[in-house]
Design a protein that fits this description.
The protein contains 12 helices and 10 strands. It is α/β, with parallel strands linked by helices.
Length: 277
């Protein structure tokens, strides 16, 4: 009997200590990490974000700790965080956080599965397994729906463009190893850019001509007129995608943030690559 009571006390103490160790004051160093924290169900514990974090709307009222790669350490320390959430891009920042004795959770959003996995990571670290698992499962169902749309058909060669000059002398594309490459492949296409030398290479109009993609998908800045941008491509009618009217332009602000909303957009991209839009 005494042993049972002692065992119960030990278990109760362990559970209390575990609960106390769960992060309660979280700072996010990236917009996509912020979205994941809220998606996982721990948004109420977020006490600071970057100047670039704008979703969900609740983060607009939170204290800002500076830029994505240029945080103010003074502002960060003032928030007394017990967890800072980073990405691989913050590798140079993490040692400074360690010296400040601030715990770190690194997420990886360089693939769609990485986005899903990061929600589970947050749930495990923050004691929110149930809500995080539900959120991750919903996103996996979204990806399963994309796979059903893609089917076993042919895979067209796709060029995905981020920003360009109006005369097409300079165009930024996505190469293998990036989340945008993964978006293309998950949505049923083959990346027209095959070199891994640079993650987001700058191409000339001659470079685009040599690639001659079957489909062009342009992610432009929010607020721009998609119809105007799409019409500009008509001057390159010797490129297969332009000639076949397979140029798609999207201006949604979340397209620069590889979080849950970005993943859900894979279904739209799958329809574009299939020619259903």
């Amino acid at each position: 009997m005494i042993r049972s009571i002692l065992t119960a006390i030990v278990w109760a103490w362990a559970a209390t200590a575990s609960a106390q160790a769960m992060p309660q004051r979280i700072v996010s160093l990236a917009p996509s990490a912020t979205e994941v924290l809220f998606e996982a169900g721990v948004g109420a514990r977020v006490v600071g974000v970057t100047s670039y974090c704008r979703f969900p709307p609740a983060v607009l009222a939170l204290p800002k700790i500076g830029g994505y790669l240029t945080p103010s350490y003074e502002a960060l320390v003032a928030l007394r965080p017990d967890l800072v959430v980073t990405l691989p891009e913050h590798a140079d920042i993490e040692p400074r956080l360690s010296r400040l004795r601030i715990p770190i959770l690194r997420l990886d959003h360089r693939s769609l599965e990485g986005i899903v996995r990061s929600i589970v990571q947050v749930g495990e670290r923050c004691g929110a397994i149930e809500s995080a698992t539900r959120a991750a499962e919903r996103l996996r169902q979204d990806l399963a729906r994309v796979r059903r749309i893609v089917g076993d058909g042919t895979r067209p060669r796709v060029l995905i463009c981020f920003g360009r000059s109006e005369d097409f002398r300079r165009l930024t594309a996505a190469a293998p190893g990036t989340v945008h490459h993964d978006l293309i492949t998950q949505a049923g296409g083959l990346n027209a850019v095959t070199s891994r030398a640079v993650s987001y290479p700058t191409l000339s109009v001659e470079g685009v001509m040599r690639l001659d993609p079957d489909v062009i998908i342009e992610f432009a800045a929010a607020g721009k007129d998609a119809n105007v941008l799409r019409h500009q491509w008509s001057v390159l009618d010797w490129i297969r995608a332009v000639r076949m009217n397979r140029v798609y332009v999207f201006t949604d602000e979340f397209l620069s943030v590889p979080g849950p909303r970005f993943l859900r957009f894979a279904e739209t991209i799958a329809h574009a690559i299939r020619g259903d839009l």
